[in-house]
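User: Fold both of these, please.

Assistant: Here is the first one.
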Amino acid sequence: MQDHYGHRISYLRVSITDRCNERCSYCMPQELQEWLPRHEILTYEETLRLIRIAAELGVSNVRITGGEPLTRRGIVDFVRRVPEIPGMTSIGLSTNGTLLAREITPANTMAEALRDAGVQSVNISLDTLDGAVYSQITGRDFHAQVIDGIDAAIAAGFDQIKLNAVLMRGRNEDQLLPLIEFAAARNLLLRFIELMPVSTTEVLSESNFMSVMEAKRLVESAYGSLIPETEFRTNGPATYYQIPGRAQRVGFIGAMTNMHFCENCNKLRLTCDGKLRPCL
């Protein structure tokens, strides 16, 4: 399957819900609470059928998203059926991390159950290590749960865990270095992401925007010139660098300032109500 620009589409982001247990100011702020009627959301069977069709057209990588996907009941059983689809080689999950450490059986956390079901990689949102700032950004006091969720994901043994931090001037620019040290201590891949216009909130104003180049300069002021990792690739759009004197990589996603951001895109998005979109 190819788009009009000749990109071979091999990656499908699958949203299974529009619900979320947080209210991040840059994504789903408190004032935007109109959920889709439940009857408009695809059933798991409908979603699996569409994934099968996508696989027949050449899609081999699926990432489960939301909303917050872990808020939907039955997600573990749903995920368990995705690897059974012929052609599927990679299954990932994007989450805010708040529910990963939850015990769903006496013997398993949510993270362990997802790993056993076939999830190979997890992306976890973490914009700050400051609990008070976290509450301001997300509208919820779940910072401790996220840290527990990250540690639960590590214990579960996923093939890869990435931390995603959205850059916000006036909110978390002082957190870049602490986040790097946090990721280093846990041997995790950290990515800094430019704020994208996905909702009409005050945080999208020009004064709140921080470019990845500015973030990179800030990081280099502490660690020295970052070393480009030209051979390192993941399924995502990040540009990776090595921190001098360390075996640690940090990624930057210039969704707004990188003129070539869409150049090699191989993704489609399936919304929870069955719409297919060529972008996030």
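And the second sequence with its predicted structure:
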Amino acid sequence: MTDYGDYPGLEELIAFHGHMCPGLALGYRAVAAALEQLGVVRSADEELIAIVENDSCSVDAAQFLAGTTFGKGNLFFRDWGKQVFTLARRDSSEAVRVALRTGAMEAPAAAAAGDETAARQLKIDHILSAPDAELFDIRKTAAELPPRAVIRRSLVCEGCGEPVMETRTVDLDGKRLCLGCAAD
């Protein structure tokens, strides 16, 4: 096993995620760069938000390093399939967008053509050691911050009988249904 002790928080992130992979390394570097640019550390509550544009392993870094989670209402997912992370401060509306540069991942994989394990480790090593500017386009940006999380009351779905958040129900033929029952 490779020792990642020189990278603060990385071993704990690996334990949280379950394994080391290029996606996790990428998320680690992207989120660390954004936190540094914003001059902040892990969010205890909702003072920091993250908008992620993918649902890959890299997003676990936003949860673990930045303290942004769906449960706290400060992690937002845009299903755009891009390795892009925007972190923003609620107190100042200052935001940083970190986007993977085109071609940033190609050279390490080519160096170990034919050996999948070696190629994977070369890619991880490259991600962890390359300068931010080689991997990412990092820029300050204006962020339209989503509202703080609101706790909504639960209603009972008249189809399945399960409690459902009021804002996730529909009225169908005079019945209050959860989205799952309404789709059936």
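Strands lie at 48-52, 75-77, 84-89, 94-100, 136-142, 154-156, 163-165, 169-172, 175-178.
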